[in-house]
């Protein structure tokens, strides 16, 4: 299922930051069935990537109606440890953006479930950033992606992980424009290549 034209192979980095979004299958927060990534270059160019995951648990009809992913959709998809293992180094060496803290919590839960290490990346919550940039939206629909989509004129398909990741990245870039400067913590860490050397 890649109806939105997301990349199916990972692009070459490094990137200024990566926005991440997950969709889940059912009642448990760690039952991830899709990971979407939006890679943002130093020039502000964005590329999106999406991968389906077998959550190894039942799909709830509510979730499937929301994101359109079902047991049939994920037939043949890899399990979380397989997909996450493939993405681990990339995610662990970049600053990450999420809209709310749900995505980090879902990854933490999935890692605990499968007894694999959680990434130690720095996370930025684009909801917090949106509150800084557009304070008037408090009490006027709030800072969720659906309301920001309307307020900022964003074009994306809500509840597709790749699309939502792109929306979160766009919120950051638009907020930087509004606030007049880039977020200093969202810069490429040029020490990454040397992080294992003795100082």
UniProtKB/TrEMBL annotation:
Entries under Pfam families matching the protein: RNase_T (PF00929)
Gene3D superfamilies on file: Ribonuclease H-like superfamily/Ribonuclease H (3.30.420.10)
Keywords: Exonuclease, Hydrolase, Nuclease
UniProt-listed SMART domains: EXOIII (SM00479)
Gene Ontology molecular-function annotations: exonuclease activity
Domain Exonuclease: residue ranges: 16-181
Protein name: Exonuclease
Organism, as annotated: Octadecabacter dasysiphoniae
């Amino acid at each position: 299922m890649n109806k939105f034209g997301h990349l199916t192979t990972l692009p070459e980095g490094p990137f200024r930051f990566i926005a991440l979004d997950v969709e889940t299958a059912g009642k448990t927060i760690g039952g991830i069935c899709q990971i979407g990534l939006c890679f943002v270059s130093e020039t502000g160019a964005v590329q999106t990537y999406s991968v389906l995951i077998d959550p190894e648990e039942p799909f709830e009809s509510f979730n499937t109606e929301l994101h359109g992913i079902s047991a049939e959709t994920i037939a043949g998809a890899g399990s979380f440890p397989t997909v996450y293992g493939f993405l681990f180094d990339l995610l662990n060496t970049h600053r990450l953006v999420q809209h709310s803290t749900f995505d980090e919590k879902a990854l933490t839960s999935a890692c605990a479930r499968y007894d694999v290490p959680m990434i130690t990346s720095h996370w930025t919550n684009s909801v917090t950033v949106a509150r800084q940039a557009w304070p008037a939206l408090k009490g006027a629909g709030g800072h969720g992606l659906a309301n920001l989509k309307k307020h900022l004129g964003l074009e994306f398909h809500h509840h597709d992980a790749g699309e939502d990741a792109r929306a979160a990245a766009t919120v950051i870039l638009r907020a930087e424009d509004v606030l007049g400067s880039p977020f200093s913590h969202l810069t490429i860490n040029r020490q990454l290549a040397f992080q294992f050397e003795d100082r």
